[in-house]
Amino acid sequence: MELSVYLAGEIHSSWREDIKQLVNEANLSITCYGPMENHDRSDHIGEEILGEQPTAILKDEAASSINNLRTQILLEKSDVVIALFGESYKQWNTAMDASTAIAKGKPLILIRPETLHHALKELSNKAQVVVETPEQAVAALSYIFEEE
Amino acid sequence: MELSVYLAGEIHSSWREDIKQLVNEANLSITCYGPMENHDRSDHIGEEILGEQPTAILKDEAASSINNLRTQILLEKSDVVIALFGESYKQWNTAMDASTAIAKGKPLILIRPETLHHALKELSNKAQVVVETPEQAVAALSYIFEEE
Amino acid sequence: MELSVYLAGEIHSSWREDIKQLVNEANLSITCYGPMENHDRSDHIGEEILGEQPTAILKDEAASSINNLRTQILLEKSDVVIALFGESYKQWNTAMDASTAIAKGKPLILIRPETLHHALKELSNKAQVVVETPEQAVAALSYIFEEE
Amino acid sequence: MELSVYLAGEIHSSWREDIKQLVNEANLSITCYGPMENHDRSDHIGEEILGEQPTAILKDEAASSINNLRTQILLEKSDVVIALFGESYKQWNTAMDASTAIAKGKPLILIRPETLHHALKELSNKAQVVVETPEQAVAALSYIFEEE
Amino acid sequence: MELSVYLAGEIHSSWREDIKQLVNEANLSITCYGPMENHDRSDHIGEEILGEQPTAILKDEAASSINNLRTQILLEKSDVVIALFGESYKQWNTAMDASTAIAKGKPLILIRPETLHHALKELSNKAQVVVETPEQAVAALSYIFEEE
Amino acid sequence: MELSVYLAGEIHSSWREDIKQLVNEANLSITCYGPMENHDRSDHIGEEILGEQPTAILKDEAASSINNLRTQILLEKSDVVIALFGESYKQWNTAMDASTAIAKGKPLILIRPETLHHALKELSNKAQVVVETPEQAVAALSYIFEEE
Amino acid sequence: MELSVYLAGEIHSSWREDIKQLVNEANLSITCYGPMENHDRSDHIGEEILGEQPTAILKDEAASSINNLRTQILLEKSDVVIALFGESYKQWNTAMDASTAIAKGKPLILIRPETLHHALKELSNKAQVVVETPEQAVAALSYIFEEE
Amino acid sequence: MELSVYLAGEIHSSWREDIKQLVNEANLSITCYGPMENHDRSDHIGEEILGEQPTAILKDEAASSINNLRTQILLEKSDVVIALFGESYKQWNTAMDASTAIAKGKPLILIRPETLHHALKELSNKAQVVVETPEQAVAALSYIFEEE
């Protein structure tokens, strides 16, 4: 069996590398997808493809149209979504990807520090699994492959 | 024609009353739904129905299970969703309701101050209409009813 | 606003009457649907319509084809499903109706005594709300209608 | 042609091994999925991943969130579901998996002793095929591969 | 509660009138839809609207485009479909309407003489209820409205 | 029975008034929806609600976001779509509305002069009915209401 | 590119072999599925798996439950359905498979002699392509693979 | 990861070859599908398979039934659709394919000269990405494959 997993969430730490390394160590047949992790490239991709934009909002709109193209296609190819929330940033696109997954019937594994639980309580309630660390998320994925 | 609108977003200001008053002034056949706006009742509804919970997280989980029941039913009954983002709070449940609407094929009208655009750029790109004030949102709704 | 609720579960106690009375007392605009509560009629409806059947299994099959017709139509008309599990009987049709509701995107309110939780743990995890009494279920429904 | 089959039902007997052996003997290109069959691991997986839980119900909830993650993903990957009911246990999760399959348009093969037919009559009526033994279930699968 | 029923099948006998009269006698809140029962009008409606057609096949194609418009809209508005098969005619459009209902998740009540069972065995197996007379079909509908 | 019809197509002639008058004359219970027919208002609605835009393309984008909001909501409320193509204009939004209806399972009645058939041949092939005049379109709608 | 095609229709002539041979000669990457073509095995499969049945109707019901299992799974795996109607037999299961394909959004190629057109006019109108011979059906499939 | 892309639009220039060459140069695992690009073959395919037709409209109808068969199957197999509009031709089938993709949840990349923006404004608003050249479209696709 092979699984595809979309890794939604912030692109300022190395948590996706942690997930991928844990997946490799556990020898799981899992393909990981995710957003562009180079923050500058993600913010500038709109202007790089479409040319300079007249305002900051239009620069953002151009970039998000390309980023959402990527997300929509990769999320559609995934069997399960892992979304990580951290202490910093608004992370509304993380909430968007997580909610889109749920609405499309793809199970969500939510990773967040316990301190954020109150603000995330409605999303946590809709997630299939709520954990605190990438190790726990991969342990849940690993369990899917286990045979007695 | 009658429309039903779900008003997603923070419950600390009177923006929903503004919307309803504007709808009334414009004589639009619109029914507005929304979350429980009494913040204390929203936070405590879980324990009120299910009894005291052993931890803060479980109190939150109990409350969110009831709040999500309400949201799921009212959002399903709506033709369009208006989501308002403000300067304060995490507002991840607002992002969740807005994204759920989009994923279910219900158009989203997003109200946010321009200062928040960068953080909301992916969600803005998926919204059908992006405005800054409740007046603009109601103007868009009003346009649906107009006949030459 | 009007809600329709399907009341799945055993037909040997008066719990549906309790729900309806509580709904009336709370003045909620709720229509309650449910299975045939006359146990004999439910078991014999197949032969009453289709004539005597050669074996007990065929009598059951005839009855269940009519009962499932009723359930499919009434459940489709409902916004939310309440399923009650008790100490007696196999109650597999209750589990079937509850699961069908979830799979069709209709939220489930599960009523069960705490003693049954272990056997119901997978279904409880998928339910939107889990309670122990009809009063709690109606309190959750009532909350959907509340405006501050 | 290759088929994937989810084997829903109790994990206290070796019926899944019987199915897999029969599939092998018949040289059918069938991949079998199913729940964790190690009963202790299934009951404890929540605490193993999420840590010790304060109550038995929360331990169950933690376990079922992981078990349902597994089931949702594997059932989604399956073309057909076989559900086996036996004389013991409540088996409400078996009824849930079987009903979820039907509601998602995946055909169900139901295996049950004739003595259980009355209690299973509504689910039997919705199943595509109802049999008494794993041999019969595999014979039905084998027929799909046959060419004259 | 109100139900809408589409009555698929031949238009050469008065079986739809029988159904409607039985519904009236039983005081059921049921709206009956169905195809154009004037056979000539049904066959000629294409040319009446679109003008004379160069060949018999094109006359048929013109008529069926209008008849299918009617069927698609009325079937979509129905909660349940009754399909009657008789001894005469090919009745392939009856089989089409019945199968479309099933594929769209609307339950089918099939009326046919027992002598036709072998030829109808695959469709019977997919129908929710199989009966021999309009009286039995209405008895099944009536059961949906019954309260103890 | 009541039908709702969305009237897609150009807003430079009075064809919608013709349809509505024919519907009235035939006493059909039909509600007609359609786009803003005041061409100036349709082109300027974006700037009227969102304020002056820096470029012509952005003015168009603002207008189309409001126009598409209207179309999406009204088309969703419709049972059937009539799309009229004329000799002038690109009419790509007419093609878009017509195709959206088909993809959502709503039948399309296409009105076009025979001279346009070649350019419309793929869309004609997907339409349920193809006619040349509003009279013919209303005749097809009228047929849905006819009882012998 | 690879296509899967379900070949619905009578099992008394060799038309499926003709299709497969034409596909081979044209070197098309097409996998053909279809029903059990051994008529006796198809009629007796229910009793072979489930044991002797008390009546002819129950024997038919047993057989059709297995045959429908096969059809549902193979049709789900197909990109397109070819349905052939001939002069003999009721062929209601052919009409059922053809209509199921259409309702599920899979295109239908209908093969029938022109003499049957009147009786098939509603189904023809819903088919994507209507032809008279297997050669024409394969020519249509072949066109999908063509590159200039 | 592998992507499939349907290239909708006119068949009078070599833009599809440009796309394919750019994809090859960028070493992207992308399979491109599209309509028959031989204009004569596309217009005559109906008569080639179905025989001479009595009128020009019927010749068109025959051709479009085969062309739509091809498009429906190839579009269903695609993850994303690129639609190119040029200065010439009505291009209503391009608008149809583009809108069908959007309605089915497949993201659309729209290529058009800026001069056409006003006429395409509603479709542009629904597209995920709007560009002016094939190079920009492939740059957007390439971004989906990028890993930091």
From TrEMBL, chains A, B, C, D, E, F, G, H:
InterPro entries referenced in this protein's UniProt entry, alphabetically: YtoQ_family_protein
Pfam family of the protein (one): Nuc_deoxyri_tr3
Protein's recorded name: YtoQ family protein
Native organism: Alkalicoccobacillus porphyridii
Lineage, uppermost ranks: Bacteria, Bacillati, Bacillota, Bacilli, Bacillales
